[in-house]
Amino acid sequence: MSTELTTARILEVTERLMATTDDPDRITVRRIAAAAGVAVSAISYHFGSREALMVAAMARCYTRFNAERLNQLTAAVDAARPSPPPLDAVLTALLEPSVRWRYDPSSDYRVFLNFRAITRRSADPRLGQALAEEVDHLGLFLDVLARIAPHLTRAELGWRLHAALGIRDNVLRNRTRLVALAGTAIDPDDPARVLTELVAMTRCLFLAPAGGVGRSMRR
């Protein structure tokens, strides 16, 4: 097997194990090597360490996830051209893949959960830092949001986009507290309703205040 095929096979197997295993500690180098049909030494040779391999597998999954976001953003922009797309369409493009992956048992959402657990347990505080700083695709969202919300500076848009993703994380990962605070009148197990609520909550971050005077204009 060529180097390229070996690397691709190891990544494919690792990502599949991360997507289907509840405990990341069970994703051992030996298990990966056996499933990929390679020697254990091939993991170290091609990736250096188990953690580095996990980062590479997560990057592979994250690229695919972000492509779904950008496909939806492009569709929203094209549908509205030459005008800016509706704010809700942009927020849906940002948030819908997260909601769909979270609620679809056949998705690769568990890759994200396992990677998060791995980074928390790692002795290397820099593990996953490069992925966290990979925001080029979010910059494309900022470009579109700047057309929709010209009352906000680029920095203000960045803060609001970061906050929107934080709201998403809390809703999707902290169900226990959500139900304790809000009950189940809004069903937290209904992905369509969850997406509707997320878009509604994040929409207000980008709207102009009453009177049409933005914060940056009042300074």
Summarize the structure in words.
- It is globular and about 65 Å long.
- The protein contains 12 helices and no strands.
- The protein has a domain at 58-208: Tetracycline Repressor, domain 2 (Orthogonal Bundle), CATH 1.10.357.
- The mean pLDDT is 92.
- The protein is mostly helical and 219 residues long.
Tell the overall outline. globular
What is the rounded distance between the termini? 63 Å
Oligomer: single chain
The number of E-state strands comes to 0
- The share of residues in extended strands comes to under 5%
Second-tier CATH architecture of the domain at 58-208: Orthogonal Bundle
CATH C-level name of the domain at 58-208? Mainly Alpha
CATH topology of the domain at 58-208: Tetracycline Repressor, domain 2
Task: Tell me the major beta sheet.
Answer: none
Calculate the mean pLDDT score and round it: 92
Secondary-structure-derived class:
mainly alpha
| Cα-atom radius of gyration | 20 Å
Unreliably modeled segments:
none
Descriptors:
Tetracycline Repressor, domain 2, mainly alpha
Concise account of the structure shown:
The protein is mainly alpha-helical and 219 residues long. It has helices at residues 3-20, 29-36, 40-47, 50-80, 87-103, 109-121, 129-132, 136-148, 154-173, 175-182, 191-203, 215-218. The chain has a domain at 58-208: Tetracycline Repressor, domain 2, CATH 1.10.357.
